[in-house]
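Single-chain item
Fold in token form
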Amino acid sequence: MPVNPKIKTVSIFHLPENDRAILWDKKIRRWLEKNYPRIKISAQKPDAVIVLGGDGTILEAARKYETQKPIIVGLNLGHVGFLASVREQKNFLKGLASLFEGRYRVTERMMLSASVMRKGKAIFNTNSLNDIVIQSILGILEMEVGVEKQPIQYIRGTGVLVATATGSTAYNLSAHGPIVMPDIKCFIVTELMDHNIPTPSIVIKRDREIYIKILHFRKRGILSLSKTGQPVDVILISDSGKVFPLEEGDEILVRQSPRLIRFAEFEKNYFFRSLQEKFGFK
């Protein structure tokens, strides 16, 4: 069998508590040894990362290897698997054969970069593949959202999220935001539970800078961060798992990250097939 010269080293990634992933890890290693003995398995600078799990696990793997730029090959052990390269277990080995023989295409997914500015200084930075969320934990939050220097939304609600196209099928979808094809590089701004007249989600070109100003919220201090004990009322959450407490007057700047995550695709119209399964289209 002709071997794709671009894939010489792979890493196999999964959560340690996932029993099905552990079984598949062993099965794939045996299969590789028998069919593709020249492929090396190593977590150090792999050309491809084989991820066993759901979308959350694929996100975690993408973040872990984002600076090394391998091809992410998601084998879905979750539900629909919007981020997975192969949805059904019966096709896992077939998909990997396509990878090692060069029968795939690579799609590049945009990441976003968010910075919290306080009194003119950046005090927190994070990158996200899916989204960042600014959210009040218990009360109402007043915010101004704009693109560069132009305000586009005033929100008096529980929060706002900025998603990439990849993240359009995650929290953004639950908040009734639009679904965007994952290879389109853009931002989606979606309000959360606005008490004013609802504003539709807005899709923004990737080369623009979005700002979110924290105008006002009632300080309660009922909850606190587990690591520091610091009381919090409003937080920024990124899909990297980072949580940062916000204060009145903070400004969050969201830009396109210079980093791209590469995913393998094996079948045509894969994204639309995933939508078909998710929503039960016939």
Observations:
- The chain has two domains: 9-104+266-279, 111-258.
- The chain has a mean pLDDT of 92.
